[in-house]
Structure formats: C-alpha cells, structure tokens
Specification:
single chain, two-stranded antiparallel ribbon, alpha/beta, 49% helix, four-stranded mixed sheet
Length: 450
C-alpha cells in the first residue's frame, strides 16, 4: 500500500513516462534462441558485445553477462565475447566467426572450461593477445576469467565500438520516450548527484596530485642524470672532425633536455610525465648516434631503452627475464646488463621509494605507468609488464580512469577497430589451433583448429 500511495503522489506524466520507458526497454530485449550456428552468434554480437549460448548459460549468468556487456559498451572498444558449450565445433571457429560478424575487433571465446582469443592486428597485435590470454589462464571459472580478460583487454586494445551497439530509436533500441523518462528521473535526483560528482572529482584531483608529487622525484632524477651525461660529453660543435650530422645529434640531445625540463614544469597529473620520459629517450638515442659517428661505427638501431633502468640508455639486445611469480618474457637490455645476465649475475634494476621501502619501479604503484610508457610506448609495454604489480594495475578500468592511457599509447594500433570490413581481413590474424593463442591446451593447425 505504501508503494501505491508513493506512486500516486508522483506527477501523472512522470509515472506514464516511466511505464513507457519500461515497456520500450523490455520490448527491446532480444529473445533467446536455441540456434547456435556461427551466423546466429555473429548476429547477436553485432547487437551486443557478449553472447552466451543457451547450452552454456550455467557458465555465466544473465546478470554477469549484462554487466560484462555494459563494461565493454562503456569503454567503447570492439571487444566481442562468446560463451559456448564444451562440445561446440572448433574447426576454424575464430576465422568463421570473424567472417560472419564482419567487424574488426578482438574476439574472445570461452568454450566449456577452455579459453582463447584472436584479434585483427589493427586492434591488438598477436603477441599482445597471447600475453593477455596467458595472463587469465589460471582463472578457471567463466565469470572471473572473462572479467579479468575484459578489464585488461579494454586498456590494451585500440579501436572504437561498432555502430550497431549504439542505442537506436527503432528495431529494439531505446526510444525518445525512454530517454525523456530517464531525464525526468535525473531531474529529481540531480542535486544530490551533482554534489557527489563534485566530491569525487575533488578526490580524484587530490589523488592525482599526490601521485604526481611522488613521481616527480623519479622524473627529476632522470632529468638530472641526463644533464650530467651532457656535462660529461667531450664534444664541441666546432672541434676538429665534427660534421653537420654530429652537430645535429648534439643539438637534438640538448633540445631533448630542455623539453624534458619544460614538460615536467608544466605537468599537472601523472600522465603528463609521459612526454618528459619520451624526450629523455629521444635525447639518449641522439647521444648514442653521436657516439657512433665519432667512433666511426655503424649507426645504432632505434631500440627501446634498457628495461631494468632507462637511464642505462638504448638497449642493444633482448634477454630472457622472469618476474617473481610471473611468466618469462624477452626484455630489452643494455650491453652492461646483457653481460651481467650472461654471467649469471643480477641486472642493475631501477628502484624507487615506496611505503614499503625501495622497490623495482614495476612493483612501486600505478603512477609509474605513464613514466614507463614514455620510455616503452606503443605495443611493447603490455608484454613487458604482464605479471608485475604495475602491469596488473594498468590492466584495470580504474587505472585508465585515474591515469589515462598515456603510459602505453595502446591506441597506436590504429583506430580501425570496430569498422565494418566484412570478409576483407587478414586470415592470419585468426589462424592457429585451439589454445595456440597463448593458452595451455593443444589444438590443430590453420585448417582444423579453433
């Protein structure tokens, strides 16, 4: 009776609008289908990012599937997730699903108790896909595994959501009537919501400021170290033997030093330091070129800096490294650290101050993501940091919201994700047997695998 009385106390128009919205939204829900052909799955994925086969509904509840779909839609990325029963045919499943869907993106399939993924290279390189799949293999229940994969993939991948996921005024989408009803409700609670938003915004600004101040110590150390390198450099543009190429290298190094100081002075949040470390990386490479020209050696290849401490300068090779409790991977190393590792000694690791004492930068906290991203931008950073504390933090939506995506610039894979390409895609991106994308289970070849 209380509910009825409360309802009657509302303005009649608002009640009518709310009822209309509920009717429209419920009418827009697609009916479940027992048909599990690839074309049916593809049709469902063109409308929503998550499909759960009726025979696999015990793996992922509707509520969990809806929450996963909402997270993907909110992120605006072309991630497609399908949950299928264990006995579903796996022959070239990824390639056929990608063809039937016709949309560039990242496709993840949970098949019984097994999991794998494939992606168009414009959205996520194959190595990155393999790293992501490997990182969630210990998560055996569908909800945990798919949630972890989605959290990490949304931060790493490029592209935008396909147009078919947007609200429509017909064909089952949300109508103008529903939007009006939602707007009316928002007006009622708008005052409290606005206050909450302002409070959260202030808290986020304060947290970012504190993170930047902690990060500033490390960045200032980097700038100082590079300045000392310039001071020790025994080069003068007018010296005998100096040519225009050498002078250009020297000028670029000096410019990089000034840019780094300027960018740091202007930094207002942690992601702003990415431009600082980018400038320092450019400057050190210029010095490496200058040294090669002066010594008559071939010019060095453009490589990322030493993973263990970017102050060591550009790397010269890759070496195997396994973080505590993580999987082995190849990391770029300088000549000195390569020698240490080859001799069975530990590399010289960059440590920073934390609340728990000195720690390697990859175990120091989320603010160091932008710092590392300036040195190891693009598609390299995810593979380097998978399994570390920093890598785990960066793979969460909260990290992206607080610190932006500037640490890795993962959108460097291109904006092509989410576009309708039909069957015009590289089949090699979707080849390989079931589990060959980084999992720990076997599979067939291109012609007969998952």
């Amino acid at each position: 009776m209380k509910a009825v009385a409360w309802t009657r106390s509302l303005p009649g128009l608002l009640v009518a609008l709310l009822l209309a919205a509920l009717t429209v939204l419920s009418a827009g829900a697609p009916p479940a289908s027992a048909d599990t052909g690839v074309s049916t799955i593809a049709e469902a994925l063109r409308k929503s990012p998550v499909y759960v086969d009726p025979a696999a509904s015990g793996q992922l509840s509707k509520a969990d599937a809806d929450a996963l779909a909402k997270e993907i839609k909110d992120a605006g990325k072309p991630l497609f997730v399908a949950v299928l029963p264990a006995g579903y045919p796996t022959q070239v499943l990824f390639r056929n699903l990608r063809t039937a869907t016709g949309i560039t993106g990242l496709y993840a399939i949970r098949l019984g108790g097994r999991f794998d993924a494939r992606a168009d290279s414009s959205v996520l390189p194959r190595t990155a896909v393999e790293n992501l799949v490997t990182s969630v293999q210990p998560d055996r229940d569908a909800k945990t595994q798919l949630t972890d994969f989605t959290d990490r993939a949304l931060v790493n991948m490029g592209g935008t959501a396909p147009p078919g996921w947007r609200s429509r005024t017909s064909g089952g989408g949300v109508s103008a009537t529903a939007l009006i009803a939602v707007g009316a409700v928002l007006v009622v609670g708008g005052g409290g919501a606005y206050a909450l938003v302002r409070r959260n915004r202030r808290r986020r600004v304060e947290e970012q400021r504190a993170a930047l101040e902690r990060l500033r110590v490390v960045v200032d150390e980097d700038i100082t170290a590079f300045g000392e390198e310039l001071d020790r450099l025994d080069f003068h543009p007018a010296e005998a033997g100096a040519d225009d190429a050498m002078r250009a290298d020297y000028e670029r190094a000096l410019d990089a030093y000034e840019q780094a100081k300027s960018h740091m002075a202007a930094a207002r949040k942690p992601e702003d330091v990415r431009s600082v470390t980018q400038a320092l990386e450019d400057g050190r490479f210029s010095l490496a070129q200058l040294a090669a020209r002066r010594e008559g050696r071939p010019l060095p290849e453009r490589r990322p800096p030493c993973f263990f401490d970017p102050r060591h300068g550009p790397s010269v090779t890759d070496a195997a490294w396994t973080p505590p409790g993580g999987a082995p991977r190849e990391v770029p190393v300088c000549a000195a650290d390569a020698t240490r590792i080859a001799d069975g000694r530990d590399p010289v690791i960059r440590e920073v101050d934390t609340d728990y004492g000195r720690r390697p930068y990859w175990d120091a906290g989320p603010a160091y993501g932008p710092w590392a991203g300036g040195y190891f931008g693009g598609g390299l950073l995810p593979g380097l940091l998978v399994g570390t504390l920093l890598g785990s933090m960066m793979a969460t939506p909260s990290y992206a919201a607080d610190y932006g995506t500037g640490y890795g610039d993962f959108d460097a894979y291109g904006p092509g994700g989410g576009d309708v390409s039909g069957a015009d895609f590289d089949p090699g991106d979707f080849s390989g047997g079931f589990g060959d994308g980084g999992g720990d289970f076997g599979g067939g070849d291109f012609g007969g695998g998952f």
